[in-house]
UniProtKB/TrEMBL annotation:
Pfam families: Pep_deformylase (PF01327). It is an enzyme of class 3 (hydrolase). Keywords: Hydrolase, Iron, Metal-binding, Protein biosynthesis. Removes the formyl group from the N-terminal Met of newly synthesized proteins. Requires at least a dipeptide for an efficient rate of reaction. N-terminal L-methionine is a prerequisite for activity but the enzyme has broad specificity at other positions. Its EC number is 3.5.1.88. This is Peptide deformylase. The gene is def.
Length: 211
């Protein structure tokens, strides 16, 4: 495990952009249950790994990246979302800016039966997107990169990001939870579906239910 982490660190530090390769669906790390982080790396190594993950996520670009997406089945993820530039989208998706943060050994629990459906993509499933119904509010626990406890309620789009990235640590891809009739390539038409504030038009055109 540490050898893989050090390889990722080296890949990132050698890259002109400071990024590491993102593995794609079919890689075993994406289907493994991630090993809990319990100090496998030194504080300095962990800090550099987190930095490489952060730069890789931004360069992709994405709003989250889990260690398995770099081929490392370790329970670490980074999140950051600048939010929506459209007030209409921000309101429909409850999408507020999410400052950069690191999750170590995260777990989430839905707080109620309230679920919302939106298109999602994944940096490890390039070229496609699909609608996923997810809990609107979750209870998030775990720790940050400094070992401080995380215990909070997360809502809206930020809750979707938390669920998506935490699922990666359990070997689950968003496609496992998706409404497959909604699956669309990220071409002109698919981009139009995902650009809608909510997926009602896609649901009518492609005949799939919404939560």
């Amino acid at each position: 495990m540490r050898d893989v982490a050090l390889w990722i660190i080296e890949s990132g530090t050698r890259s002109p952009e400071g990024v590491a390769p993102i593995v794609q669906a079919g890689h075993p790390a994406l289907r493994a249950v991630a090993t809990p982080y319990d100090g496998q790396l030194s504080d300095e190594e962990l800090a550099v790994l987190v930095d490489v993950m952060h730069r890789t996520m931004r360069a992709a670009p994405g709003v989250g990246l889990a260690a398995p997406q770099l081929g490392l089945p370790l329970a670490l993820a980074v999140l950051e979302d600048p939010g929506s530039i459209s007030p209409e989208h921000a309101e429909a998706r409850e999408r507020e800016p999410l400052p950069f943060r690191v999750l170590v050994n995260p777990r989430y629990t839905p707080l109620d039966e309230d679920r919302v459906s939106f298109y999602e993509g994944c940096l490890s499933v390039v070229g496609y997107q699909a609608v996923v119904a997810r809990a609107r509010r979750v209870h998030l626990t775990g720790a940050d990169e400094h070992g401080a406890a995380v215990d909070e309620v997360v809502e809206g789009w930020s809750a979707r990001i938390v669920q998506h990235e935490t699922d990666h640590l359990g070997g689950t891809l968003y496609l496992d939870r998706a409404e497959l009739r909604s699956l669309a390539a990220t071409d002109e038409l698919g981009a139009r579906w995902s650009a809608e504030p909510s997926p009602e038009a896609a649901a009518r055109a492609l005949s799939f239910p919404l939560a």
